[in-house]
Amino acid sequence: MPDLEVPVLIVGGGGCGLTASVFLSDLGVDHLLVERRATTSTLPRAHYLNQRTMEVFRQHGLADDVYRISAPTANIGEVAWRTSLAGDGELDARDLHRMDAFGGGSTAEPYAAHSPCPSTNLPQHRLEPLLLEHVRGRAKRTPLFNHVMQDFTQDEDGVTAHVTDRSTGRTTTVRARYLLAADGGKGIGARLGVPMRGDGWAFDVISVHFSADLREWWSGDRVLITNFVSPDGGPVSRYGMVAMGPEWGRASREWALHFHVPPGADTTFDEHTAADTVRGLLKLPDLDVVVHQVGHYRPEAVIADRFRVGRVFLAGDAAHRQPPATGLGLNSAVQDAHNLAWKLAAVLDGQAGDALLDTYEAERLPTAQRNVEWAMFAFRNHAVIHAGLGLLPGQPPEVTRANFRDLLADTPMGETRRARAAEVFATQRVEYQAHDIEIGFAYAAGALVPDGSAAPPRDPWGYVHHPDARPGHRLPHAWLDLCGRRLSTHDLVGDRGGFVLITGDTDDVWAAAAARAAAACGVPVTAVTVSPGRHRDANGTWATARGGPRRGAVLVRPDNHVAWRGGSPGPGAADELTAALRRVLGRGE
Ligand SMILES: Cc1cc2nc3c(=O)[nH]c(=O)nc-3n(C[C@H](O)[C@H](O)[C@H](O)COP(=O)(O)OP(=O)(O)OC[C@H]3O[C@@H](n4cnc5c(N)ncnc54)[C@H](O)[C@@H]3O)c2cc1C
Question: 4-71+120-196+303-377, what's its fold?
């Protein structure tokens, strides 16, 4: 006999598990979250929250709290490359390149046009406590921190897990209908025999989280990340630094410094040696540095063969792990949880068939594959910078310094070298201007009914985004005017589940069809008419993005992806919509 029965057991209280808990609570799904650690993450780790994640947070009432303490666009809109932060040598503190990023400067227009939510920056050690507050405020059951899931078995009806309270040693048997493995890849996938396939990185990355007053030296208030390429050579010749708040720009008090160490090099850093390393790299020998923590990891680009095994779902780092470039780790983890939560709710509610749960893997695995490949590509692309600066691998420090002198010289050839470097640096936009990678992903198969239309083109640089209301795509954002109140198409679907049918005219044929389909399938379907009288298409964006005729309709899922798109309604509109909804819900054609 189990000690406890619950519909969903979430193992792991990182970004994936915590957000899954919030989404499930909003959807009315009882669940239990268990987390091995006594507290949320104390390391900053992930910090960049992309627009899609912020849209999800907006939908679930988290965005305002995040924006209240995260960095505004004005403080994240630029990335810099320099030789060092400080120092008074001829090659010290020299600017090598600057790039607009994350919706700042020249990128502002497309980022603002395509989403109601700016991207932002909030390190994980500040985000997770905020998420936990929301978990505690919404979940029926208190999340169990300092509790570890020891083992589990599954059968046709559910999962039986043993959870041990680490402070008392007491073990509880939990019986759940479904288990969400949000354990960061720490064992559940392996226990299920699911291989992780992919690529590793030969270098270790050391991350030092520290406090210091760098107002005099930081690269400017707009700069979130400064990357350094040191003319001094040596084992640590390339490293990067990120502002971690709680104030932003130059005023940031906390920082994360990440550097690569080659295989075999000494990677044992205690607080004292880390502080000295920070001072040495920044060329600020007398800087007051308080080291909070030193992290050590080896980036990998790996993906699980399967995201669902019976009643267990792998999500976040348990399903895919990627290098930090482009910040797709935590963002994908949140988006996995968002994709799965409404499906679990619909199945547990009896609205959908088990086949709906298979669409989690069908949709998220190819998306994760693309993200993992992109992150590794962007990470490896750092290597071209050396070529752009005219540096050769293994050259002695005096040759490197001579190269930098030539590069920075006030001569016609210096100018030519800098022009070449600028072109090479521009390729780093795959990491810092990945607008289409972040919001342009679409599901080719899954909980959707394809309409036979051609997919929009995708920019190979991952930047130019083509919004499209084609089934499988993220619902295009358009501002609507509702009696003087501005809302996004994304606000039409709330946080409680249910579908929205966006129609394009004032007649009520589609509204009646929505009511019939809702009654037939037992799920809420709200019809919303975008017309000059109500929900006015404020700047014509929706008319372009929806595709199809003015009297067509777009069926939107609870996660703001398009499920189905229909043309002008004929006499069979209600049947057509009902059939589509049944198919989306995994209840047959
Ligand atoms: C230096 C660095 C920088 C990064 N930068 C970014 C970035 O800018 N943007 C971005 O999106 N991503 C970034 N990432 C990646 C990001 O941190 C991860 O992708 C993200 O934390 C994944 O969240 P998760 O919840 O899936 O896993 P985790 O955060 O690893 O959480 C898993 C949790 O499960 C718990 N757990 C494991 N096993 C058990 C068990 N048996 N019982 C109970 N609990 C268990 C663990 O204690 C852990 O707390 C970065 C990572 C690193 C290392």
Answer: FAD/NAD(P)-binding domain (3.50.50)
